[in-house]
Amino acid sequence: MEVEKTLSTIFLRHLARELDSELSGGFFDKAQQIGPAEFKLSFRTKAGKKDVIVRLPGLVNITSYKIPAPRKPSNFAMKLRKEISGKKVLAVKQHDFDRVIVLDFGEKKLVIELFSKGNLVLTKDGRILAVFRSEEWRDRKLRFGEEYVFPKKKADPESEDFREMLCREGERALALAVGKENARLLLKSLGIPQGQKEYSEEQAGRILSRLEEILNSDTKPVVQEGILLPVPILSSEPEKEYRTASQAVDEEHPPELRREEGKESKLQRMLEMQKKTLQEYQKKAEEEKQIGDLIMQNAHVIAEAIRLFKEKDVKGLERLGARITKDGKIEIDL
Fold first, then answer.
1. SS3 for 129?
2. Which residue from 240, 220, 246 is spatially nearest to 18, judged by alpha carbons?
3. Under the phi-then-psi rule, with left for phi > 0, alpha for psi from -120 to 50, and beta for the rest, what region is 7?
4. Which helix (H) or strand (E) holds 208?
5. How much is the pLDDT for 278?
6. Going by C-beta distance under 8 Å and a sequence separation of 6 or more, which residues neighbour residue 117?
7. DSSP track, 234-269
8. How far apart, in whole angstroms, are the C-alpha atoms of residue 111 and residue 100?
9. Which residues contact 244 (CB under 8 A, 6 or more apart)?
10. Up-side HSE of residue 213: CA atoms within 13 Å toward CB?
11. DSSP 43-60
């Protein structure tokens, strides 16, 4: 079973904690756009160089893969370099238990949005300095110069009103908070039936206690029932186990490595193109030869059709298996 290519809110809580531990106190080095919606963010830390890859819409992690740099940096990558290269990372946090990671550089912040189409937004004192993808909704605009507004969280298990929401809306509230599959596993681990539209106070209390335990436990990433989790939720043996959250993302979703072409591969590609062109010419020549042979074999029929056409003998043409088209040409069935 393939693991979903988006990270849940509970996994991001653990991952953000891990990124904060690895990157805080380090310095932003440079940004590179390595794909249509993929970025490599490099940092200098006490432990050495760390590369964070962001793959919109749903993935972010410190990677152990050596990803080659593109020949030419994108405009957005250049803007990030200009604004935050050399800046110290003060903290890395998950915003309001949402699929949003914030890298704090002081007055400037890099916001990684991992929902919908995904986005990267650089802000200064709350206003947008640069945005990878300009977007607009009724309640927020992602455009240069606009005030940055975080998306509204539909359900936050750490908010005071979440217990009441669980009692009132049941599984829907839980799924909004942690995702459908995580909700399913959590309910299974507690022995609470799925599909309930309301929860009792006792059930809501058990769910909140289990969620608190998951969020505050030491990170021990696993895959259970095809779901990537920051810690085991079920008592059953996991299909896979990992040391860190970043390693889990790296292994479950390895980045595509786009390597620069060397001289040898360029020559090979040119040779393949020339072979293909030659094959196309040979095919065309063979088709034209077949047409020529067909004309020679039926020269007397064609000559008779031309004569009948000049004499405007339509019935004679029909007996010959020929006809006059709307644009005044002769068609013959040979």
1. strand
2. 246
3. beta
4. helix 201-216
5. 82
6. 37, 56, 57, 133, 135
7. SSSPPSEE-SSHHHHHHHHSPPP--PPP-HHHHHHH
8. 7
9. 18, 219, 221
10. 11
11. EEETTEEEEEEEETTTEE
- Give which of 65, 73, 93 is closest to 29, Cα–Cα: 73
124 closest CA partner among 149, 146, 107, 106: 107
What band does 332 get if pLDDT is binned at 50, 70 and 90?
Answer: confident
Kindly indicate the confidence band of residue 259, based on its pLDDT and cuts at 50, 70 and 90: very low
Edge-to-edge, what's the strand order for the sheet holding 227-229?
227-229, 222-224, 240-241
Contact 51, 64 (CB under 8 A): no
CB 255 within 8 A of CB 51: no
Q: What is the pTM of this model?
A: 0.75
Give the burial class of 46: count Cβ atoms within 10 A of its Cβ; 0-12 exposed, 13-18 middle, 19 or more buried.
exposed
Written as one letter, the residue type at 143 is R
30 in helix, strand or coil? strand
Q: How far apart are CA 95 and CA 113, in angstroms?
A: 10
Amino acid at 53: I
